[in-house]
Design brief:
Blueprint (H helix, E strand, L loop, with lengths): L4 H49 L4 E2 L2 E2 L3 H24 L12 H21 L17 H35 L1
Antiparallel strand pairs: 1-2
Helix pairs in contact: 1-2, 2-3, 3-4
Length: about 180
């Protein structure tokens, strides 16, 4: 069986799509794990605050920690990361044409910023503490979008900087 150039190109594209989706899945899982750790940390901090001011609750020899808080944080981080990664993979900046030698870096920053804003808009700035509690608190759409934009912009700048550095090192290697 001979591999034609067209078939080789299709195989390379399918591997690229697979790697991007695998990378995104890893980021989503990592976000959920990080959210669970944050929730546990906050629950333990809250428990130690109550320990100083009231009698501690002990169940079967262990101190009680609020597991609901860690689940809430994990689910919200997974939701944010899922919307963020889905939007980033669609690459919203493909619709814009940048006339700059740093086109790749502008596209990365734009993709991450727009993806963060969309994720913040999707979650509408609802505080994690009120998720699933039937709270009548009104969502702060602007605050959610601004927070998401910032959460997207910062990693976008970092990744664009690393991409620029990688390009410069490859240029340097090819010059030698």
């Amino acid at each position: 069986m001979t591999l034609t150039p067209e078939k080789h190109k299709e195989d390379a594209e399918s591997k690229d799509v697979f790697m991007k989706s695998l990378e995104s899945t890893g980021r989503i899982v990592l976000a959920g794990f990080g959210g669970a750790l944050v929730g546990l940390s906050l629950a333990r901090r809250q428990a130690s605050h109550f320990k100083r001011h009231s009698r501690p609750v002990v169940t079967r020899g262990r101190r009680y920690t609020n597991q609901e808080s860690s689940r809430r944080w994990a689910v919200s981080c997974i939701a944010f990361a899922t919307v963020f990664e889905g939007s980033r993979l669609m690459s919203p900046c493909n619709f814009f044409e940048f006339s700059s030698p740093y086109n790749k870096q502008f596209q990365i920053i734009g993709d991450y910023s727009i993806s963060g804003a969309i994720a913040g808009l999707a979650l509408r700035g609802i505080p994690i503490e009120t998720l699933g509690m039937g709270s009548k608190q009104t969502p702060r759409v602007g605050a959610g979008m601004a927070a998401g934009l910032i959460l997207g912009f910062i990693p976008g700048v970092i990744i664009a900087g690393l991409t620029f550095l990688e390009d410069m090192l490859q240029l340097d290697d090819s010059a030698d």
